[in-house]
Batch of 4 targets.
Target 1
Amino acid sequence: MARTFVWHPSKGPRKTSKQNLPESGSVRIQQVRSGIGHSWRMRATLEAIGLKHHQDVVVKEITPGLRGQLKQVRHLVEVTPVEGGK
């Protein structure tokens, strides 16, 4: 059985602000913190999203899978909706 996710005392925030993601459309994702010092799962999630390095930006279509990925690394990324699509 999988372990419940628990924040490491020095990794990540005590509270994160609510992500107001749109139901559909595109979002701009910017990596604002480095993956160094975080678990291999978080680094793999950043890579799966398409972020290669600190301050990298990608624009992606919002999907349920992307929503889950963003929730896992919400303290490392900044997400903003894109008005005109891609």
Target 2
Amino acid sequence: MRGGSRRRTRPDESAKPSHITAEGYRRLEEEAHRLWNVERPKIAKAVQVAAAEGDRSENAEYLYSKRKLGEIDRRLRFLGKRLDVLTIVSEPPPADGRVYFGSWVTLEDEEGDVTTYRLVGPDETDAGAGLISIDSPVAKALLKRQEGDEVEVRRPRGTTLYKLVRVANTPP
């Protein structure tokens, strides 16, 4: 399928308003800047060089570069739309021991494993870096809770019980 007949597998949520931390917004801006000023010119040059080599229908380098250029352009369009509708939350959360957007939380699970997360907007989620979406089941269960609370989180693998060990409004 090509062009307009292609159906999306997910709804387009690029214009859906959301919150983001100042750091997350800066990372998206830096990505857009890098794509526009470094990656796109490099790939556009590769397309130009590959096109000069002759028959484009059998030129793998040309086809690859065109596809890569399309991916970059799609990402730039998406970032442009997202950056326009995101609300930057630059104020730190209150230091009252409760969990809010932007809080760092330290949890202990039933096996005694301790993990620290920061609750962020969906555009900056990175589980490997400990950034979890405010829309995730864990974050939803933690909001407005306070240090010492036990929190039951329903996940696809079943229910998990956590103890909220620490809440901070600055990195641990």
Target 3
Amino acid sequence: MTNSIDDGTRRPQAVVAGDLNGAATLNGRAGASEFSIGGPDGRGGMATGANPYELLSASLAACTAMTIRFEARRRKLPLSHVEVAVSFHHGVDGGRDSFERSIKLQGPLREEERAQLMQAADMCPVGRSLGLSADIRTNDNITVGRPANYDDDLNELPIPYIDAD
């Protein structure tokens, strides 16, 4: 993927690009990772790949898992596996949006150690940034409610349809 935004003086954290007349999928790059970004293609089809809400949720899940892992290693806690599931939800009646975050910790942890790791989850830098504009609810199992639908949100945008013909 070419990077026309990167002029060599500063490197962006993420770049997304795609041709208007090409494939419906946009191509994304973050660090050394390249991936497809999906969702409505503007022509009535669906592009394959994770949509922006899924990517946002994945960022929170990744940062949470990394923060918990960092804390467990720093404190030498017997955490053997961490799993974090996240879903993004719109606020009801114009209320604050929210993320539902479920965390599963495995290993011979004492209750106080589990509590320390769950508390560490709230220190995740991405969560702290997202928490400025959305609530983050955390529980200790891997079940999340119905997430916000990116396709529906795009359809609700006040963009007039203009037929090119």
Target 4
Amino acid sequence: MKVSDILRVKNGDKGLTLFTITPEHLLAGAMQMMVDYDIGSLVVMSHGKLAGMLTFREVISAIVRNGGVVGDITVSNAMDPKPLMCSPETELDEVRRMMLIQHARYMPVLDQQMLMGVISFYDVAKTVVDSQNFENQMLKAYIRDWPSEEEKTG
């Protein structure tokens, strides 16, 4: 399974909504946006290119560095300028490995330099569980339809 499969299922028929912000925005505005849309990350874009990633982890770290005050911190001073990334063709097992090693909860998906979406650790875990459930159902159906000894020799 590939990242493109996760994006296809995640976006479904509701369409793709990407939440982005520029490095110049104030962190307080980014935090408000994350709360308003109930999202854990924002992709930071500058001149149409990925500039970084802002998650609650970076938000909290920036506030702590600033003495517990948001103040006039900008997104560029809080974001991760080199986030873990993948492409739509990246295999799910590779994404899981990368996210676990780097403790990443969110990963932008880029096709060349075009932002295709963001996948979360939750998206990856849900995909794995759904896949395992499907396999279990198929195995149970196969076993249920297994021919008896009488049917085999008859």
